[in-house]
Design brief:
Blueprint (H helix, E strand, L loop, with lengths): L2 H6 L3 H10 L5 H12 L2 E2 L7 E2 L14 H8 L2 H8 L6 H21 L12 H20 L12 H14 L9 H15 L7 H18 L11 H15 L7 H21 L29 E6 L4 E8 L3 E8 L14 E6 L2 E4 L12 H6 L7 E3 L16 E5 L4 E6 L6 E6 L7 E8 L5 E7 L3 E4 L2 E5 L4 E6 L21 E2 L7 E2 L1 E6 L4 E8 L1
Length: about 525
């Protein structure tokens, strides 16, 4: 098949799909495109600019983070071009179009078959590269730009099929992950954009994969199983993208997406803080906006019971003034992006995180800092001197949460340490600023770990005091059952103080309090003054 045959085979519905999904007035993408081609500087999300001549690049010499390479390998400049097309001048449209062609050729010559090029055929990057290539190609056809006017661009058709074939191979398919979801959705979307019979096998297998991915990715309550509010938001966006496939007559996939959208939105609203941001839990980044829920009640509580999905959320006000969000998490539905955070507590008051976890860090599972941040030591939860079971299939029983509405008590059970560990949270007096947490297990080494962040800690006979902007948090326990109160703790995995990460790849010192260690049970009282 030649490039002209590929052009002639564009489905009539594809223009409508492009018109509905690409608006071409993105000033930010225009700035990135101009910076790349005019200044030879590449701007990746969450990273400083890097000097890069994308027209004459060896595709391996830059020493950067995996996430930096993941973004570059998707050829994002193609997306920037079509997203900013209407912002560009007529001269820039032709100039940048030509430069995009040259940059693709540079990748083909120096990156495509280069085993030393980082993440060149990464499961996720390859899918997005295919998406960017095809969207760019079709957009340029609609805009009547000269794609295919020169025989030299006949490589584009081969490149599309090479990517489809690579993604079609089961060994390259990351089943039951957000990567697999995107692989299937992109593979189906691209194959629907063309009428040729050659695309039918790709339509069939990716349609089957996508239906499977959607039903696996979310619980019946609409909670994304990778268990980070940030991914809940991102994957809700993917569900909405599925509805755009209706222009191709994909009613089954569209309805499947619609089935989960309302539920996924409801959970996103429940877990969003009153200030509109998502809590930094799991792989969620700071200042990630969610969906604001209804007004917080001044008296009593609003409880969001997602216990079958591993979450219990309580919202209310302390002394009718200070809005609080209490989140109790205990679930293990997926090993992907897994944090060892069973029975974790998150508490936010007036936009300030009193108790939380260490954050994402970076997407390098072998990095010592990443290992620490996903470990039990970087979460507000019970800690035992036993290895935590990270593989779901190796658990004797799955974790669970229970909400006792009559008692105003949240209860959870985890088998992550290989033994039964229970946590009970009494929030009955939280409107007055008191929270009681009780932990219990069959191990004398039971401790209670509290992640404070970068706040200063004061030790006293009454417990641990932490000063915030408008209030003070006091954490206390039965001192006869506590062998240590620690902060600035050092782990065997990381020879520095405890850390947390608000932004990707950035780390700060973190204070934590560790209570207990001499008994099988422990009660901790938190007073917000």
């Amino acid at each position: 098949m030649s490039i002209n045959n590929l052009k002639m085979g564009i489905a009539s519905e594809t223009k409508l799909y492009i018109d509905k999904n690409i608006f071409s007035r993105n000033q930010t993408d225009y700035n990135k495109l101009k910076k790349l081609f005019s200044e030879r500087k590449y701007e990746a999300n969450s990273f400083s600019d890097v000097d890069l001549d994308v027209l004459n690049f060896d595709w391996n010499s830059v020493k950067c983070d995996r996430n930096w390479w993941w973004q570059l390998q998707a050829l994002p400049f193609l997306n920037w071009y079509i997203n900013s097309y209407k912002v560009q001048t007529k001269e820039e449209r032709l100039e940048y179009f030509s430069l995009c062609l040259k940059a693709i050729l540079c990748w083909i010559n120096n990156g495509k078959d280069n085993k030393d090029s980082p993440l060149v055929w990464h499961d996720h990057a390859s899918a997005f590269r295919l998406k960017n290539l095809v969207n760019w190609f079709i957009f340029c056809q609609v805009a009547e730009l000269p794609v295919g006017a020169d025989v030299k661009v006949n490589w584009l058709e081969d490149l599309v099929f090479e990517h489809l074939d690579w993604l079609q191979d089961d060994k390259n398919y990351s089943i039951h992950t957000n990567h697999g979801f995107d692989q299937a959705m992109i593979g189906l979307t691209v194959s629907l954009m063309f009428t040729h019979d050659d695309f039918e096998p790709y339509r069939r297998i990716n349609r089957e994969r996508l239906e499977n991915e959607v039903t696996f990715a979310f619980t019946v309550e609409g909670v994304h199983k990778e268990n980070s509010p940030g991914y809940q938001k991102a994957m809700l966006g993917r569900l909405r993208q599925l509805t755009s496939l209706s222009v191709f007559g994909e009613d089954k996939v569209t309805k499947l997406g619609e089935h989960y959208i309302a539920k996924a939105e409801s959970f996103l609203k429940a877990i969003t803080l009153p200030n509109g941001y998502l809590p930094i839990i799991g792989d969620t980044r700071s200042e990630d906006k969610g969906l604001v829920d209804d007004e917080i009640p001044e008296e009593g509580y609003r409880v969001y019971d997602y216990s079958s999905s591993g979450y219990l959320i309580v919202k209310g006000k302390i002394k009718k003034k200070h809005s609080f969000t209490l989140i109790f998490k205990c679930c293990h539905d997926s090993n992907y992006h897994r944090h060892d955070d069973d029975l974790m507590i998150y508490l936010n008051v007036d936009g300030e995180t009193l108790l939380g976890d260490g954050g994402l860090g970076l997407h390098d599972e072998k990095n010592p800092k990443r290992k620490y941040l996903r470990s039990v030591h970087a979460h507000t939860m019970p800690v035992i001197n036993r290895p935590f079971i990270r593989e779901r299939s190796k658990l004797s029983l799955l974790p669970k949460l229970i909400h006792e509405t009559n008692k105003k008590v949240l209860s959870g059970i985890s088998y992550g340490y290989g033994i039964k560990v229970m946590r009970e949270i009494d929030y009955s007096n939280l409107n007055n600023g008191l929270l009681i947490v009780r932990d219990e297990c069959d191990d004398q080494d039971l401790s209670s770990n509290w992640i404070i962040g970068d706040r200063d800690i004061t030790l006293s006979n009454k417990g641990v005091k932490i000063e915030f902007s408008n209030f003070r948090l006091v954490i206390s326990s039965d001192q006869s059952k506590s062998k240590r109160i620690m902060h600035g703790w050092s782990s065997n995995e990381l020879s520095t103080n405890s850390i947390f990460s608000k932004k990707y790849g950035q780390f700060s010192k973190c204070n934590r309090v560790l209570l207990g260690g001499l008994d099988k049970s422990l009660e901790v009282r938190l007073k917000i003054e």
